[in-house]
């Protein structure tokens, strides 16, 4: 029963995570302008986007509470919900006692107010759920990249096509970015600034600002074509938006990011300075400097200054105008008017001359109800009257003053009333007016407290927590909250606050859930075969590490040179008898040697170092330990430095960017079954022993794939520092005929394991396109076209794959020919395998070298020759006994036909 409940919880946790990630990714779609149009809102009473968010968050909340039903967090959630409920009761009671000079008291609605409080609570639920979600760097990059592509990509495309909505008018723009540099568009920022098809320019600008530090983080961490294109697209989009928040915000974040990059490169030394990254950041600076002067942001700034100068006029005109206003106000005081007062009449006829916004004075807070207020406003300096946020604040202060209720400071005048006056474009301040101090404490201050707490904890644990990633997350939250204070329309805008809550939840998780920074033990597994000339160099590269908590397990796979003497001498010279352990076995190939070594490891991390390679530098172990302590990943992979026989650098093998996704598995199918990622990796010991050993070591399939039960990907992370210097020489194992067959066997097994789950139409053509992208180093942009269904052209693809390695002569190899023939025949035939001789060796993937050797030398047993003959005829069932079934299962797995054969046990 306990096992069932645990399994049930794991399934629900997985479902929760999937729904949660998808919910974050669809946020831009829920911000489309047309979902908030009057026609749509009138039908549903609220935007359908908001209703959809409430429903999905309700599902997430239920799943979360069920999965964590025994957690203390439930008590906190209950207490918080009670506080919100009690607050709302008092908030509503206070709203009943309201008086203003405007008839209707700005139309308070209990239902609308309750709906608003619920809406403000939703992101806090996301924050809690996010805190409990383990989001790896790879998944976070997918989320951030997707959001940037959706938001910035759509803004750039619609701007270039001139179909975007204008940021300030909701009409279509009349000019694209190419028109910014034309003098005919000078002063027409309202026709140039574009927001795509999104609702509010301020809010989408805040979202763009939120994503900017995270996009910079991934650009610096993984400089590839995809991230470069996304970053440049993001830059253009933020200038196209035409708001100060977006344009100047990008420039400010760019400057801070450059400072952070230098700090973490040269002072904190979290990573090495990369010239290419430095040039990329410099390019961003140059582009920003070239575009900003012509952008709608600067266009608007110049326009506003010009308007202010024109409206202000000379001092004589201003003085005469204000004197006339005071005269009309005096007439109103001197005489009772049953009809319209002189001041009201004068305001109506002349407010435009005083640069008063018509929406404010006629609709938001009508001058006919409170002419004295507008009399005071009209006498303000021109810059104060053109500052809309200032006028909005003055109107709300006046309403509070007229109501004269001290409880408004604590419970607010309600969001409904404030919104019916005007939604003050300055968050926290607007919420103070609408929700009061208590409302701000309950609904907004948690964001500030978490930010402050995270920052303090990062400083207290400076060495462990003050990392480039955490600083990027912190900066993302900080700039978003700063924008909310400056421009408003952020904290009650769900697209922004939901993603903000997601990021802040991850920040809090990072600073609280991070692993210990102690130097954990690294077990180095070193298979060796006749490498006496190079093994000392390999051992010395470990000895020279600025990191002492390591062990080396050497398994000599039947060497005939003086490898053992070299190791013994090295251990005696350095007193390493307790740190280096030597084991000898008859030659049985590298994978078996690794399995033997694995039995003797005692470390927290496992790293394979071949005896003809060496560690790249003296800080590899230290940096790997630090990175594994900061991440939730199963393993780290990195580029390889290529060296010749003399150890001189001759090049670099770039490791593809790893993503834990179906796209990566589909690409693996397309890449002829060859491992997409190098085998050199630092692994968490438990993952290596329980998962990797069963796939990579036992069956010679890619280390990052778990093919034991279906198809799963492990969590692997690219790092920016190299691990090893990989020696290139003619005697490399892959260059031998047996070595090539061994590798090909693993590739065929990988492909055939993936065939039941992934179908790639037009395989040959897609492969050609893949190769072109690979040659151009643009694979980060490539996504194969695939279907999650069984492949039906397996034989054709296998022929193509084998031909790429062996040419057309593969039919001379009995094993390869039998595999192809089997997939071509695929008939409904049954064979019988019973009473297998116990002395008969059943080969595993790690035994392919021995199998191929016997095959080439015509020494295969009669049992295997008969089985290969049956494969050439084709079959789909094997009838066997209970005793023989496990060996038959391994047999068909070795022959790469297990998913096509049903085993019937008598």
Automatic annotation (TrEMBL):
Residues 523-662 form the Glycosyltransferase 2-like domain. Residues 305-338 are annotated as: Disordered. InterPro entries: Glyco_trans_2-like (IPR001173), Glycosyltransf_2 (IPR050834), Nucleotide-diphossugar_trans (IPR029044), O-antigen_lig (IPR049504). Keywords: Membrane, Transmembrane, Transmembrane helix. The chain crosses the membrane at residues 20-36, 48-66, 73-90, 110-132, 139-161, 197-220, 249-267, 279-296, 432-459. Residues 311-338 have a biased composition (Basic and acidic residues). SUPFAM superfamilies: Nucleotide-diphospho-sugar transferases (SSF53448). Pfam families: Glycos_transf_2, O-antigen_lig. This is Glycosyltransferase 2-like domain-containing protein. It comes from Carnobacterium divergens DSM 20623.
